[in-house]
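so i finally got all the pieces together for this one. its two components total, 498 residues if u count the protein bits. some of the lines might not be protein, just check the labels. i wanna see the whole assembly predicted at once instead of chain by chain like last time, that was a mess tbh
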Amino acid sequence: MMVPEGILCSKSHEYLLENADGSYTVGLTDYAVEQLGDIVFIELPEIGTNFSKGEVFATVESVKAASEIYMPVSGKITEVNEKLVETPEILNESPFEDGWLIKVEAQDAQADSGDLLEYEDYKEEIE
Amino acid sequence: MGKHTVYYEKHLELGAKIVEFGGWDMPVQYTGIIAEHKSVRNSAGLFDVSHMGQVFVSGSDSLGFLQKIVPQDISKLPLNKAVYCQLPKENGGLIDDLIIYRLEDSKYLIIVNASNIEKDYKWFIKNKDKFNVNIENKSDEYAMLALQGPNAYKILKDLSIEEAKQPDFFTIEEISINSIPLYLSRTGYTGEDGFELIVKNEYALKLWDIIFAAGEKYDLKPIGLGARDSLRLEAALMLYGNDLNEDTTPVEAGLKWSIPADKEEDYNGKAVITGQIKYGTDKKLIGFEMTERAIPRHEYEIYYKGAKAGIVTSGGYAPTLDKNIGMGYVSTEYGIGSDSEIQIMVRNKLYNAKVVKRPFVHKNYKKSNQT
């Protein structure tokens, strides 16, 4: 699996990726989706909602269980990945590309990302 | 760390994801729950169910003892036949649910749930009383496999067990496969035709390999507990700890069909159970499917016309139906029945669901070899 360059990961398995336009993409790491198994339902937030770092903004359900997904940074939701509603399995297949969750206009990404890890360090942390 | 079955290393070799279940470290999935679920519905799958318990009951009062502990009429159980039973307390609440096999005139095998082995054994001893009976918990000596799916019987056929020699539904035979002695019964927990094989630990690994070698042409797959749960839910089979517990009677659980009205002997809980059969219950089990997009889960609340009416005991995504389904208990005062519109509270929001008949899928049991 291709891991995008420059992603930052939280210990609760969300990733944060800065886009060219200054917005941020948030998704779940390959490790997280592998642990969840077959994903069958995803509940996404409404566009325009503000969330604080650490707040639950989405729920991902596998066959086995429901898991809450936390904001890695504070900010306003600008886009959600509508494709996941009809075809949640995209998240299993492509967590870093087609399976992204939301795009967010971050309040202060610099300050909020202090406790996030680079992918290599994240991998080390979870193993 | 939980207990390990004889197949633990095998599961790791096959890349299984391991979870703790009822005190055991068991494979929850090998490749994926949905794919495994479909393998069983479409062809065949093999489950390690060695965590389940085997208790042998023998001695001249075996029948009397069993008559006292279950509502079912064991005096009507022919040789080599099996019956689905419950283990009620005096108040009708259930210690466990089980399968009783009659192996010989006065020898029975009881299969009990993994998490209840110790509790059941203590209950048996407590109820032993004046009965002349030997109760032997041999759970640690036996492994158990479930070979399930429409092609299960073909795999046994290829292992030289002709169809005519294969046991009928809810029947058990002592047979050998490649010189391995075992109990073969036509039972399962998937709603499909299939078998359970109870074998001494020392032969268990060899038996697994033999079955997989024969199963290759049917694309036999190892199946984890995840698919075991989704398969049994579609078939609306009870899971002890979720759908049944010490506060639930078999009548409330919709198991009245399994309880004979004319059993003469007294048994634990008889007054409560026969009373409920006659006068009804305060709560009852229902099955439902979601009509809005949401997944019902264990312990979510059930609403009816704005009032909290009950609680979900099992729920999830049903791969065969591509729907979200569940079972739960509701108060009988609301008159909730088939096609009633109910709501399930999911993360503080109500989602519509509809009461449907159980099982959710048609059960493909083979009732007889002759037909």
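Chain A has one domain: 8-118.
Chain A has five helices and ten strands.
anyway lmk what u think
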